[in-house]
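re: ur question from earlier - yeah i can do the single chain one, its not a big deal. heres the input i used so u can compare w yours
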Amino acid sequence: TLINFEIPANTSDARIMITTMDGKLIREVSINGNKSGQVQLSAADMSAGSYLYSLYVNGVMTATKTLVITK
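and the output i got, formated as tokens:
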């Protein structure tokens, strides 16, 4: 699964956090200084179902989307 992202140029800390629908943290992926790009997410160890993934920039959540895993 590919997750696309865009972050401001002067970002010191960016990460994507994947959680269950009830808020349990499943995975956290740090993003280096790229302004935009993709994160490759292996869902092999995740159960089928719906998850949320959120982009945090400098500690502030800037976007959240739904991820659906089917097996």
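The mean pLDDT is 92. not sure if urs matches, ping me
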